[in-house]
What we know:
This protein is mainly α. The protein has helices at residues 11-26, 34-74, 79-102, 106-127.
Amino acid sequence: MVKHYGGIFDYDLKKERLEEVLRELEDPAIWNDQSRAQAMAKEKGELENVLNVLDGLATQLEDAQAMLDLAVEADDESLLADVQSELSSAEEELAKLEFRRMFSNPMDIRLGYRDWETDRKSTRLNSSH
């Protein structure tokens, strides 16, 4: 069963969009508009990156499940350390992805900087009175 989580985690939507972008980049006419071609190439890279991370997470979780099943079947608690290690690694990758999701809107970083810059100038102006 495929779950839809939305945003950066919506795998199916990202996969579909990547296919659309690849089709558009195959059209020689796109290269007549360099800014659009560059934007599409950038989007392609971002989509591939997110999909690769999600694929890697799925593999890590499948591996952890297989190790857990083996540990239970073999009644071998020493394998649980390997399961924990795999889960910790997956958790770190997920945290990185979540951090990127928080700043997925290109304006997020610039607005944050602008607010800081505005506050700094405002403070300087108010302190000079």
